[in-house]
């Protein structure tokens, strides 16, 4: 790979991708690593925490080398409040020393460091120092602003937030180059931070695509047991009336295989997928309330008798009656997951069921490609980033209902590839509109899916990276080596 004016990458041609987080839960940085290896033909060292497996394409690429740092232990809930400020100082200090050890000793000297932001502290400080020691270029990939995330827990007026903001801005300005995820963020960086950034929109890689009927059936077979296990005693998927063919390995909640023929069940539930990090910037209660409203509103529309025996009611629900059962599969890991699972277990729902799970990297795209609708609860602490989960959903041909905020229209086009909502009631209305007559009718849902498929063009992660990221990386390496 050559820089401007014919400059060439020095040394052996290496890049270091730095993530102060779980690499398996950092898809954009995984895609950077793959592109650096495939398209720039560099040796790539990933320095990150372990925890979740990255995609097999990353693990198996001979030019990508993963270096897992020791994970910082979770903060004990019993820690006295008076000691928490000390933890805010001690934790980044330990992380700073560990990062320096890996970046300056454990990995070969790279031509360029590419670091994910946030977190900004101590990442940007450590990478800047390492880049000076090893005479490497230093690029920041701005996913969001770290100080706005910290403000969610400490408040905007916290001195720690103010210090964090100063560090993030100062070290952001001394980087050799910057990438960012939206035009709105590019404008903010230019106007208020004095930083020139190149927009690199998230795009799905090649393994996010439509799933075939055979792939859907095999996936549903693998997760069938989890789907039939409720959080409470029973629900509309686990009731005995609905699981009479539970012992048949060729029958799932959604599909049936007879010989070599696979078909979708006409009375299957509608499958809705949402991926969440279970953090405060994604209010999961909105989805719970919307599901409860859908359940109650459908009962009222159909004049269902609350006193009717449950097995009879569930048998009628299984038969269709205009509005389907809804199965919400919520993927992801995070601190608030257990709290919401307990809330789910207490809900009294007739035609709605929830399941949470963590899927293998290879199964997650298949789930998106098998679903009927995606839901995004991401609101953005800064209002300037876009949810990558929606990009992945679009890559799999899946229409989306997303929370409305300032720059989401850079990604979701209303009535073309998705819908926006601002409240749980609005989301419940969208469920009623999209799923009436499922699976045979649903003209609005089908129209959105066609819009998603029509907008899937030749632009993908590889072409976006080749056009925007590769020239920047080439330039900063050349300038740094001159």
Describe the protein:
This protein is α/β, with parallel strands linked by helices and 482 residues long. It folds into 2 domains: 211 residues, Rossmann fold, CATH 3.40.50; 245 residues, Glycogen Phosphorylase B (Rossmann fold), CATH 3.40.50. 41% of the residues lie in helices and 16% in strands. It has 16 helices and 15 strands. The strands form 3 sheets. Strands 3-2-1-4-5-6-7 form a 7-stranded parallel sheet, sandwiched between helices. It has a 6-stranded parallel sheet with strand order 12-11-10-13-14-15, sandwiched between helices. Helix 1 crosses helix 16, helix 3 runs parallel beside helix 4 and helix 5 runs antiparallel to helix 6. The protein is globular, with a radius of gyration of 24 Å. 44% of the residues are buried. The N terminus is likely disordered.
List keywords for this structure.
single chain; 482 residues; alpha/beta; Rossmann fold; 2 domains; 7-stranded parallel β-sheet; 16 helices; 15 strands
Topology:
Layout: E1 14-22, H1 27-38, E2 43-49, H2 56-59, E3 64-69, H3 84-106, E4 112-117, H4 123-133, E5 137-142, H5 146-154, H6 159-173, E6 177-180, H7 183-193, E7 198-199, H8 213-227, E8 255-258, E9 261-264, E10 270-275, H9 285-301, H10 310-318, E11 326-331, H11 337-346, E12 352-357, H12 363-370, E13 373-376, H13 388-395, E14 400-403, E15 418-421, H14 424-435, H15 443-455, H16 461-481
Parallel strand pairs: 1-2, 1-4, 2-3, 4-5, 5-6, 6-7, 10-11, 10-13, 11-12, 13-14, 14-15
Antiparallel strand pairs: 8-9
Helix pairs in contact: 1-16, 3-4, 5-6, 8-12, 9-14
């Amino acid at each position: 790979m050559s820089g401007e004016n014919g400059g060439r990458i020095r040394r052996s041609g290496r890049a270091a991708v730095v993530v102060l987080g779980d690499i398996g839960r950092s898809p954009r940085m995984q895609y950077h690593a793959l592109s650096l290896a495939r398209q720039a033909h560099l040796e790539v060292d990933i320095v990150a925490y372990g925890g979740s497996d990255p995609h097999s394409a990353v693990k198996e690429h001979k030019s990508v080398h993963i270096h897992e740092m020791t994970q910082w232990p979770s903060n004990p809930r019993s820690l006295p409040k008076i000691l928490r400020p000390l933890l805010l100082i001690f934790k980044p200090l330990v992380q700073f020393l560990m990062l320096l050890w890996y970046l300056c000793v454990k990995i070969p000297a790279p031509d360029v460091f590419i670091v994910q932001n946030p977190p900004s502290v101590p990442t940007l400080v450590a990478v800047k120092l390492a880049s000076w020691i090893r005479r490497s270029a230093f690029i920041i990939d701005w996913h969001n602003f770290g100080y706005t995330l910290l403000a969610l827990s400490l408040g905007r007026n916290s001195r720690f937030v103010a210090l964090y903001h100063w560090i993030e801005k100062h070290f952001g300005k001394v980087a050799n180059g910057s990438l960012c995820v939206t035009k709105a963020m590019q404008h903010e960086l230019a106007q208020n931070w004095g930083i020139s950034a190149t927009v690199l929109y998230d795009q799905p890689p090649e393994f996010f695509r439509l799933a075939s009927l055979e792939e859907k059936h095999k996936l549903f077979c693998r997760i069938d047991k989890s789907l039939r296990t409720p959080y409470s005693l029973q629900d509309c998927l686990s009731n005995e009336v609905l699981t009479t063919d539970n012992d048949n390995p060729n029958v799932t909640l959604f599909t049936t295989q007879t010989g070599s023929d696979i078909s979708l069940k006409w009375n299957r539930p509608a499958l809705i997928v949402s991926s969440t990090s279970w953090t405060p910037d994604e209010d999961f209660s909105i989805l719970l309330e919307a599901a409860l409203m859908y359940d109650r509103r459908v009962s009222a529309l159909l004049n269902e008798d609350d006193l009717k025996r449950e097995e009879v009611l569930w048998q009628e629900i299984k038969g269709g009656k205009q509005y389907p059962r809804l199965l919400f599969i919520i993927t992801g890991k995070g601190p608030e997951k257990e709290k919401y699972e307990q809330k789910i277990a207490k809900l009294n729902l007739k035609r709605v069921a929830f399941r949470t799970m963590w899927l293998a990297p290879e199964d997650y795209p298949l789930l998106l490609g098998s679903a009927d609708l995606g839901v995004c609860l991401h609101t953005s602490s800064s209002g300037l980033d876009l949810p990558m989960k929606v990009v992945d959903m679009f890559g799999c041909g899946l229409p989306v209902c997303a929370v409305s905020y300032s720059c989401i229209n850079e990604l979701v086009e209303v009535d073309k590839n998705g819908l926006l909502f601002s409240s749980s009631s609005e989301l419940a209305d969208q469920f009623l509109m999209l799923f009436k007559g499922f699976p045979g009718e649903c003209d609005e849902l089908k129209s959105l899916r066609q819009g998603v498929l029509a907008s899937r063009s030749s632009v993908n992660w590889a072409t976006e990276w080749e056009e925007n990221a590769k020239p920047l990386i080439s330039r900063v390496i050349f300038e740094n080596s001159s």
